[in-house]
Design a protein that fits this description.
The chain is mainly β. The protein has one helix spanning 50-55; strands at residues 13-23, 31-38, 43-48, 61-64, 71-72. Helix content is 8%, strand content 42%. The two termini are 22 Å apart.
């Protein structure tokens, strides 16, 4: 599991969105999160962009490739 909710630049994973959430963790900025079930059954909570958050739903597939931001597949 990641030590931070923000995916690292060189991380690579793919999975199915099982939950969406958002919150103002620092009191001034809205952060958008998805919980993703990976192929090995592990669940991770990852921070994503607002645009991606608005375009995905639960049960959508999301992919993170090295050097790129998470994207809907």
């Amino acid at each position: 599991m990641f030590t931070s909710h923000k995916a690292g630049r060189d991380d690579a994973w793919e999975g199915i969105v099982i939950n969406k959430s958002r919150g103002m963790l620092d009191g001034s900025n809205m952060y958008h999160f998805v919980e993703v079930r990976l192929a090995d059954g592990e669940s991770v909570k990852v921070r994503i962009s607002r645009r991606l958050w608005k375009s995905i739903e639960v049960d959508d597939r999301i992919v993170k490739r090295p050097g790129a931001e998470p994207a809907r597949e």
